[in-house]
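User: Show me an example of a complex going from sequences to structure tokens.

Assistant: Sure. Here are the input components:
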Amino acid sequence: MTPIIAELAYWQETVLRGLVGLVAVLLPTGALVYMFLFKMMSFMQSRLGPMEAGPYGQLQLLAEFGKFLQKEDIFPSKADRFVFAAAPFVVLVSTFLLVLVLPGGPDAHFVDLNTGIYFAMAVSSVSVIGIMMAGWGSNSKYSLLGGIRAAGQLIAYELPLVLSVVGVVIMAGTLNLKGIVLAQSDFGIWFIIPQFLGFLIFLVSIQAELTQPPFDMPVAESELVTGYMTEYSGIRFLLFFIGEFATAAVFSAIGATLFLGGWTIPFVDGSSEIMNWIGPLVLAVKMVLIAFLIFWFRMTYPRFREDQLQRLAWKFLIPLSLLNIVITAIFKVVF
Amino acid sequence: MPKVPGMLVGLGVTAKTFFKTVFPDGPTGPPAPSKGSHTVQYPHVKEAPPDRARGVIALHHDNCTSCMLCARECPDWCIYIEGHKELAPPRRAGGKPRQKNKLDRFDIDFALCMFCGICVEVCPFDALFWSPEFEFSELKIADLLHDKSRLADWMETVPDYPAYESGSEVKVKKLPSPSS
């Protein structure tokens, strides 16, 4: 990919990167929503899901998109207009920033940061600010409660998420996502086997970070209507929706990179030139595998109570992930 | 055998339903979700409701004495009844003419009705019946007010009472029937 980009002018490269970034966010999001939210969820409930728009309802997402575009963009009369209007974009920006560091091949990446995973964990917290902005700016009690619940939950689960990643970082010896992928092919086995505990903690934590059921207390519709999204309509609601599922896709991809060997396939040299082209596809397949787990849990479990949810994070997951770090460090030093 | 944790059992339930829906003929058969699902694609396929389904309320107005019991018991007050008294010929020659309640108006507003069935239960003269018919949506909400003749038309869709179990007929004096 490098030789092609090198021939382009700076503005051409920028436009190309923007388009590829958009595709990299929206295409997996649409695929996940159609495959899992529309179809797998329906089959798990013994129904068919959308069938009318296109063959097997494949164009349903376009129909939904058109529907949301037509709707009026309503501002509550006493809302903080700027904060209210900007909140969905802040949430979406955090998702787009996450995609930046994802490596799809030895050279297929947007930026190659030496602190890649650190950057990813940091910008994923930006969405909390967007959610708090939405909760505060709406001037509605449901939104405010939802926003505060979301903030409390995201802060609580950020810790086990980061700590479970630390185990992988210790094993790989680098914070660079590409380095982590290549370390896995050097190690001979994907990190999901030696870091299985870390993988489980990571799965639970991203489930909570995405506010997917069973951790959907911030949008608990039986208590808070839809939490921080209550007052939103039309395109801004759609942006929140895209943000939620795009983040699910990106976090699945990060999980695939950390634990399932990223773009590499066993017995194939990960740094060869051809991997730039098939690497993104391999990563997409692995992303779908992890997203399948996320959506499977989402469709199976009922919602946690708020105190149970906090207790699980602070009293169970954080000590467990600290234990994981200690064990990993001991093994790293001994062997 | 140790007890399987409930959280894993839950995952098993959803996975099992998934495979039952996608592969109704077992894992070797072709994937056929439209066969495996319990739902039907409504406008294309019409599901036959059970005989006793609560679709719409039908009126057999010959039986109605405009006693207003149904209108008074209705929780939504969606039944409107008007009637007047008129004289009917005496039963025997030379007798006094009988007084009869004639029904002028009997409307049910299905925009208000919550299909609780209290009116059907409370009717002492078997004038109201449940019909399983469910396709009566309208473009205008006012059209959901069904008048006497429209309610009478639904009578054709009311199923007959199911036959009594053997041995239980002797206890009943007469078999009620919508057409009696």
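The lines above are the inputs; the final block is the predicted structure for all two components together. Residues 72-334 of chain A form one domain.
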